[in-house]
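Quick illustration, no need to memorize.
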Amino acid sequence: MKNIRLIHSKVIVSIIGVLLFTATAVPARADNLQQQLHQSQQQVNQLKGTLNAQKNKVSTATTQVLTLKQSVQALNNSIARDQVLLTDEQHHLQELEDQQQKLEVERQEHIKALGKFLKSNYEDGASTYLAVLLDATSLPDFIERADKIQMIVGTYGKLQKEIIALNETMNTQKESINQKKASIQVALQDKEQTQQAVQQALDKQKAVLAQLSANEKATVNASLSAQANVSRIKKLIEQEALEAAYAKNSANSATSSPAGSGGGVAGTVKVSGGAKQILSFAAKFLGTPYVWGGTSPSPGFDCSGYVQYVYRQAGISLNRTSEQQFNNGVSVSRSELRAGDLVFFHTYSSGASHVGIYVGNNTMINSSNGGVSYDDMTNSYWKARYLGARRVIAP
């Protein structure tokens, strides 16, 4: 009986020991799970912040890609127009050369006709004026022959003068056409170089967008995985709570803290020079977002802020707003526009509410709703809203 009591006492002690162990071990494990939950929730919050930042970058990159595509299209249209102009001038030049050849043929035919006339009208077949005169049989015959020769020579001389005058006119026209061709070819070459640069920028931006999209997708997958891990840990905590309740213990509640986000900086580049350097500098900001009131590349420009920034780097001081800039420089007509002039439009108001920089051949570079881009001034929107132009660069 004593032995039975001893065994019974040992069993009770063992059970109490197990219960005590459970009561201390469960809270320790629960604390560990709470720490894991806290870390996992931090990771989820950090991934949310990262994902939001990536979405903004993807959105910005997408806008830049669309803007660059628009610029490439505008340049392609401008290049196509230049090529048509060049072809037209070449056809005009060929027409003039064909006319000159016809005039030369006509002149030679007149010479031959004159010789045939002399031979056919005088019996001895004399083919020179002197021979015709010397063949006269009397003074009246001599005078008659001289009058006819004078008439023939006068008619021929008049034709020759007309041909020479036409040739001189056509030579002047050819020289003018060749000058136009040279000017168009220079402009075409510059635009083709710009188009290649913009196309390269577009290709790079597409690659950036693809990488950003891939990063966003990876972050989405990581966020889903982290959220699944949080759910798994919460289930483990619930299970531990049940075990703790069974062991007459309680579980601690879970806590979490949010994650933060960062920002960026931007720089500037100074340039100086005439219209070509200004346009080259202006093109560096293609794709920069439009920001109302913006005056710098980061976060972006509005129309007048962009123009002011570009010209400031060239050492030219402009007023701040498009309405004020409409008072800078001197007024120029649309037919006299040249690269570097400021072009103004009435968009949301009747005054000069938008401004751009004229590139040439009815093309401007400006900061509009889609950001900095090239735009065709002959399209229906800009053509209907054109207001005027100002020249701020000295010849």
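The helical segments are 2-121, 129-134, 139-246, 275-283, 303-313, 322-325, 380-385.
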